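Async update (no meeting this week)

Hi team, since we skipped the sync, here's where things stand on the single-chain job. The sequence we agreed to prioritize is pasted below, unchanged from the tracker. I ran it this morning and attached the output directly underneath so nobody has to dig for it. Comments welcome in thread, and please keep replies under the output.
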Amino acid sequence: MRNPANSSNTAFLSSDLLQNGNRKSITLLKDSLFCIFCFILIKLAIDFSYVYFVSPLYAYAGLLTDINVLKLAESYLLVFLLGLYYPKNLRIPSDFLLFFFYLTLFIPMASIYALKNGNSLFFYAICFCFVLMKSGRKLASWFRIPTVKSGRKIFIAFAFLAILGMFSLIFARGGMSSFNLNIWKVYELRRVAGATIYSGAFAYIMPLVGKVLLPSLFAYCLWKSKKTGALLLLFLEILYFGFTHHKTMLLYPFLSLGIFFFFKTSNPLRKILSAFIFLLLSSIILFAVFDSITMLTLFIRRALFVTADLHFVYYDFFRDFGQIFMSNSILSNLFPYPLDMPVPNMISLFYTGHDRTWMNAGFLATGYMHFGYLGMFAFSLIASILFALVDKISKNSLPMWLSICIVFPSFMSLSSSDLTTSLKTHGILLSLIVLWFISSNKRFSIPNGSPSSKWIQKHTAVQNKSESEIAP
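Output:
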C-alpha cells in the first residue's frame, strides 16, 4: 500500500526540482541573450574603430578599407550564428579557450572579411574550422590520463631549477647590457638581445620559461595563497620582460590575476565580456577625445586587426603560389622548401614590399599554407583535441581558473603561430605536461552542503521513491 507521506514527499521533491530546472533554464536564456548582444556590440565597435581610426592611420601598412555591403551583412549573420553555437557559460577550461578565439580571432576576421572585401570561400572555411574546433573535442573522449606520483613536487623542483638556470645564463651572457623596461624600446633592443643572449638553443628555451614555467608557478602560488611566492614570481616576470624585450612576458602574470579574480565572481563570462567591451570602448574614446594612440595601436590594431588581416594575406599569397607541405619544418626531408627566405619574411615582402618584418599568422592560415583547405580542417581538429586534453587532464583535480592560467599563455600563440611552432617553441606541449603533473593528486569530491550535493541528494531521493513504488 502506498504511503501518503512518501507520495507527498515525492511530489514536493519533483516540484522543487522542476522549479529549479525552470530557474536554471531562464538563467541560461538570459546569459545567452546577454552574450549574443555583447558579440554584436563588439563587432560594431571593432568595425567602427577600423573604418574611422585604424584604417586612416595605418592604411600605409596594408589596413585598407574596401567595404562590401553584402559581406558586411553576411559577417554579422555568421558572428550571430557561431555565437549561438559556441559556449555561453564556462563549464570546462576548453570553453574558455574557444570563447577567447571566437572573441579575439573570429570576430576580427569577420570584420576584415567585410571591410577589406576578403575572399568568401576562405572565410567560409574559417567558419567551418571554428565549428570543428568545438565539435571535435569529442575525439579525445577515449583518452585515459594516468597520474604521476609526487607530480606537483616534481614540477616545482623542475621549474625552480629551470628558472634559476635561465637567469644565471642571462647574467653570464651579459644580459644587463640590454636590460630595458620601456615598452617603446623593445623592438630596437630585441635583435641585439637575440644575437647575444638568446642565440642557438636558448632561443627555444626562453619562451618556455616565460610562457609556461613562470606563469604556472605564479598561478600555483595564487591557488595555494602563497603571497610571498606570488610577489617574487611577479617580480621575476617583470625582470624577464626587461631581458627578453617581449611585451607579452609582462602581460602573462596580469592575465593570471585577471582570470583568478574573474572566476571568483558568480558569472565570470559576463565579467570578461564586460571588461573586453570596456577596454575596446576606452581605446576608441582615449584616441577620439584625448588623442592618445597607445591603446588603439596596441590592442585594437596590433592584437585584433593585424592578426586577423594576416590570415587573409597568407591565403592570398599561397592560393597563387601553392602549398609548401611543411617543407619548412617536420617534412623538410620529403619536400624541398620552395621559397628563398623564411615564410614570415616572404609574406612581408609580398605585403609591404620589403622583407625586414617578421609576419607570422595563426594555425588556420598556416594550415592552408601547408595543405590547403584540408590543412585548415586537420589543424582545427588537432587544436580541438588539444583543448579536450586540457579538460581531460584537469577534470576533478584542479580549479578551472588554475587550469586555464597554466595553459592559456601558450595556447594564445595559436592565433599568430604555426601549429607545430606553438606546440614546441611556444610551449603548448610543455604546458600540458605541467598541467598533468600539477593535477596528479587527489581528485576533488563534491563537498556536503554544496548546491551540487543538495541537487544530487534530491534527485537520488526522488529516484529511490519512484523505484520503491514500482517494485512489487
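Quick observations from my side:
The radius of gyration is 25 Å.
The chain is about 75% helix and 0% strand.
Reply here if anything looks off.
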